[in-house]
Design goal:
The protein is an alpha+beta fold and about 425 residues long. The protein contains 21 helices and 6 strands. Helix 6 crosses helix 7 and helix 8 packs antiparallel against helix 9. It starts with 16 loop residues before the first helix and ends with a helix.
Length: about 425
Amino acid sequence: MEMQLTQRQELKVALTKELVQAIELLQYSTLELQSLLHEQALENPFIELRERKRTVNKRRERTDQKHYIENVSAFNRSLASHLHAQLVGMYICDKERRALDYLIASLDEYGYLHTTIAEAACHLQIEETIVSRALHMLRSLDPAGVGAENLPHCLYLQLIRLPQRDELAETIVTEYFEPFVHKKWKEMKAKLGVELADLQRVWELIRTLHPRPGSLYNDEQMTYIVPDVIVSYSNGAWSVTINEDIIPTIVWNESYERKVQTDDPRVQKYIEEKRQQFLWIQRCLTQRATTIEQIACELVYRQRDYFEKGSLHMKPLTMREVATALNIHESTVSRAVKNKYMQTPHGLIDMRRFFTSGVDEHASQEKVKRLIAELIKQENGQKPLSDQNIADLLQQRYNICVARRTVAKYREQLHIPPASKRKQYA
């Protein structure tokens, strides 16, 4: 085989460092983008970040004044601090105080205790009777159920503190909890000598209890999602606006440039490099906003029924369709909608939710799930709908052909139990 040296011309896309960073910047969430800009400002002394002046919508301001409770600052208290606050003024000896502190510190985020009296006594080097008294004191505090060993015990601690004790409910959660939650009520009926209506009454009572009492308290500040895109309707047309208030404006610091400007070529080269870096960030931000706005406009156009009528009218849509319409790559659409949120007349929505495969030509997964939830909500509790019944109703009422196993899959995703566990006996 003879070796030859030939020339061939090819066209390839070279992913430079700047291009890779521009692609990454497109998929950044608002918080990630803000963090990046602050990092760039620290690295580049000529970049100045200025917070935008938030524009106040007078109409929205009047609306918000009606919801005074939403304007009150959040006050969060941890479960431990809530329990300690109840001990103030109570006479407790030093050893009991140490035991209480240890037990409270051993609670998990739901209020359950995962240590035993023996383990606590061994760790603290005190008598088990003292730890036992401290545990009894802990379980008498608010919220009811705190300090429980497991879920049945947690429910029992809440039941015994009701104004009117229910012996049947207490017996069920302590001795027959597993068959009860799996609704093996016919077996329990014979063992307990009660009617199905009595078991149904206990079921409704237990549903009013809190399975995780400790989760009512936390020491974390609430996190609010700020929309990247705002869609509104005015003057007979839909408008799409990029929420620029959440992104600080980057400005070239000319005063600092004048201070450091000299005839030294090294300084001039340094300033020029930083200027190019600043211009690159500006271009990336502009391109990012333009891309997101184009995709948002296309979503409003293709999902017009959703914006006008609600989530039940969301149509099947793929990223490939939007990419083809905008003459961009499908991966660009995927990056642009990642961790982005849109404020719509029907609430805040993740932009990825607009892309959903369809069960048929006119019904998206989102629509079918909502219809399933609505049918189950309206069902007769004594004769709950099976998955096949739901599939038949979808075909009869909405002309949506769905297989039984598909209904079962969507029902499980909605965290709705099967018909056998939804059945009511009174």
